[in-house]
Amino acid sequence: MGLNILVIIGLYLLGAALGWRAKEWHQGWPNQIFVAFSILATVGGILRGHLLFTERIHRPGLAAARKRAEPITWLVDVSIGLILIIDGAILVPTMEVAGVLVAALGVGLILARAVVEPSTTVAAFSSQDTWP
Fold first, then answer.
1. How far is CA 40 from CA 13, 17, 34, 118, in A?
2. How far apart are CA 96 and CA 49, in angstroms?
3. Residue 97 falls within a domain, yes or no?
4. Which range of residues forms the domain containing residue 77?
């Protein structure tokens, strides 16, 4: 599970870097997008960091911590994905490849959250009593 958390935190960092570049390339609307992305990534990073810490330090408490964080991290991940898709769409007219890559990262983050993370969580905890 720890690797999943690190990958998603890495995607947050990659998205922040791309959002920063988009903000520098286009003045105006991308500034608000970058601010929203930064706030969401900070919240998501803190919660995922807490889950990583709990997994390492107090594994019996991990199921309860995941259950508490689940709705917030789901909202954060999907929101960040949508922001990246919007950011990519803004970039496409002037920077086609960059725009497509940013939008693809958004789609990938949503898919990772909706499909990959639930599957790997079930696989990781199927033999343990700490997660259904």
1. 12, 14, 10, 21
2. 34
3. yes
4. 10-45+71-124
Q: Is residue 117 part of a domain?
A: yes
For residue 56, tell me if it sits in a domain.
no
Are 56 and 116 in contact by the 8 Å Cβ rule? The answer is no
Q: What is the pLDDT along the chain (132 residues), one digit of tens a residue?
A: 567 777 777 877 887 787 777 777 776 666 787 888 888 988 988 898 898 889 889 989 888 998 999 999 999 999 999 988 988 888 888 889 988 988 998 998 899 888 877 766 665 655 554 444
The answer to the question of residue 62 being in a domain is: no
Report DSSP letters for 24-45, one per residue. Answer: HHS-SHHHHHHHHHHHHHHHHH
Counting Cβ atoms within 10 Å, is residue 128 exposed (0-12), middle (13-18) or buried (19+)?
exposed
pTM of the complete model = 0.77
Q: How many domains does the chain have?
A: 1
Query: Is 44 in contact with 12 (CB distance < 8 Å)?
Result: yes
DSSP label at 115? I
